[in-house]
């Protein structure tokens, strides 16, 4: 049976492409149908229509608001046809909202698996994402063979909302590393060290990381077409600060990166790749 896929932004398209490349047949839905009509997939007119043709449906959306919309819109996923179906939500949601999604879907007889992904377009195309799932163990085990087609590393944290919280914690590393690497790059240039050479040295020195490996060429070329946008990392760091506030726990190292990415949004660069934060530091030199 075909797999349903809702949300074909940058990451969604990459994951859908990967699933197609390994032989899965997809039926897709996107709010902007014009954006996806030339991708070669069968297109459903509504989320409800996907339920009639697919037992498993991926969602890859920007935030919790978008997920609520897909669930509750007219002819959305929350309907009688959801019974026995499995929703795999790849979205990075609010850690409280995701509890509501579990409840809403399960109360309609469906199965909800929160399944935020770690990684962006390049690893998604190669099936090398990391996924962390929370939800019923039996649901996770049933869909694991599908997850193995898009992910190199797979983890299950049974307590609901744990996967979402872990994704936010991971993105503290991501945002902090990116801001530091961008500043290091700009500082090296101020010292009249060639950018590519500085990045090569950082890559075998204190800067070596998956972030630097993924973003070195973007920094060299100053190609900031989005794989993971400033809007997305800013949203995730905001959610992380909200989580820390509710835990009554101080959060030190997330504060400055969040405001730097907020500055990128204010400058109209929210849709650029988050490596474009380099421009903030370069502009000062």
List low-pLDDT spans.
Answer: none
Could you tell me the CATH topology label of the largest domain.
Rossmann fold
Q: Note the beta-strand portion.
A: 5-15%
SSE-based structural type: alpha/beta
Provide the CATH superfamily of the largest domain: NAD(P)-binding Rossmann-like Domain
Task: Characterise this structure.
This protein is an alpha/beta fold. It has helices at residues 10-21, 33-36, 47-53, 64-72, 97-107, 121-125, 137-147, 162-190, 195-204, 210-221, 230-246, 255-266, 278-282; strands spanning 3-6, 26-29, 42-43, 56-59, 86-89, 111-114, 117-118, 129-133, 151-156. It has two domains: 3-159, NAD(P)-binding Rossmann-like Domain (Rossmann fold); 164-282, Orthogonal Bundle (N-(1-d-carboxylethyl)-l-norvaline Dehydrogenase, domain 2). The protein has 13 helices and nine strands. The strands form two sheets. The protein has a six-stranded parallel beta sheet, sandwiched between helices. The chain has a three-stranded mixed beta sheet with strand order 7-8-9. Helix 4 packs parallel to helix 5 (97-107), helix 8 crosses helix 11 and helix 11 (230-246) packs antiparallel against helix 12. It is globular, with a radius of gyration of 20 Å. It starts with a strand and ends with a helix. The mean pLDDT is 95.
In summary, what is this structure?
Helices cover 51% and strands 12% of the residues. The protein has helices spanning 10-21, 33-36, 47-53, 64-72, 97-107, 121-125, 137-147, 162-190, 195-204, 210-221, 230-246, 255-266, 278-282; strands at 3-6, 26-29, 42-43, 56-59, 86-89, 111-114, 117-118, 129-133, 151-156. The strands form 2 sheets. A 6-stranded parallel beta sheet has the order 3-2-1-4-5-6, with helices on both faces.
């Amino acid at each position: 049976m075909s797999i349903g896929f809702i949300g074909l932004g940058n990451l969604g398209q990459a994951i859908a492409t990967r699933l197609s490349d390994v032989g899965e047949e997809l039926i897709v839905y996107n709010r902007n149908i014009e954006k996806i009509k030339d991708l070669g997939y069968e297109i459903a007119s509504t989320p409800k229509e996907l339920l009639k043709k697919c037992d498993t449906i991926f969602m890859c959306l920007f935030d919790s608001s978008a997920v609520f919309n897909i669930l509750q819109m007219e002819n959305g996923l929350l309907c009688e046809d959801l019974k026995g179906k499995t929703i795999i939500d790849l979205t990075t949601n609010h850690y409280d909202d995701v509890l509501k999604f579990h409840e809403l879907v399960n109360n309609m007889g469906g199965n909800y698996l929160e399944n935020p992904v770690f990684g962006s377009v390049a690893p998604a195309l190669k099936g090398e994402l990391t996924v962390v799932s929370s939800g019923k163990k039996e649901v996770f085990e049933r869909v694991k063979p599908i997850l193995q087609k898009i992910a190199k590393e797979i983890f299950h944290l049974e307590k609901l909302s744990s996967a979402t919280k872990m994704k936010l914690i991971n993105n503290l590393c991501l945002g902090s590393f990116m801001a530091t690497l961008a500043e290091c790059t700009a500082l090296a240039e101020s010292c009249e060290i060639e950018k590519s050479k500085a990045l090569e040295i950082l890559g075998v020195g204190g800067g070596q990381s998956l972030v630097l490996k993924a973003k070195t060429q973007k920094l060299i070329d100053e190609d900031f077409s989005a794989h993971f946008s400033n809007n997305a990392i800013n949203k995730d760091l905001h959610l992380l600060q909200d989580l820390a506030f509710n835990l009554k726990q101080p959060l030190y190292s997330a504060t400055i990166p969040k405001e730097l990415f907020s500055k990128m949004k204010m400058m109209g660069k929210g849709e650029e790749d988050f490596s474009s934060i380099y421009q903030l530091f370069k502009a000062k030199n």
